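Lab notebook: predicted structure, single chain.

Context: the supervisor wants predicted structures on file for every construct in the current expression panel, including those that have not yet been purified. This is the next one on the list. No modifications to the sequence; it matches the entry in the shared construct table.
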Amino acid sequence: MPMRYVRRVLQPGETIVYATKLHWFVYLWAIVLFVICLVLAVAAWSTADSQKLDLALGIAAVIFALLALSSAFRAFVRRSTTELAVTNQRVIYKTGLLARHTLEMNRARVESAVVDQTLLGRIFGYGSVTVRGVGSALEPIHNISDPLTFRSYLTSG
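Prediction complete. Output recorded below exactly as produced.
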């Protein structure tokens, strides 16, 4: 997994201990929209006798296809531009393509890391990790793949 930002900001002697990324569940909305598109397309095809109804269903299917495509593109950009890493010295979180948001905290300054997982998150292996540093605000990181392992590496050592 390429970690361009993380590798660029590593200090001499600093090594990556654990790296992860956003879970594929960031594509969920795009998948739902695509399924709706398929249902509408099948309905349009099956009502070919009624010219006005199949045209309306076909137009709705195209609209949902475009919505699904734009949602998938947004999720792809978000997932590919987010980097999460724990090094032997710091935790590094970077997100954003044009505008960038970063969190770089010394591991010794990490006070706690809280994991929040919904039922679906537990089933599919994703969740949110909220990092609290000494003297800093809470920093939630959402939709992380395997958040328990991320927390374990973050709080160990």
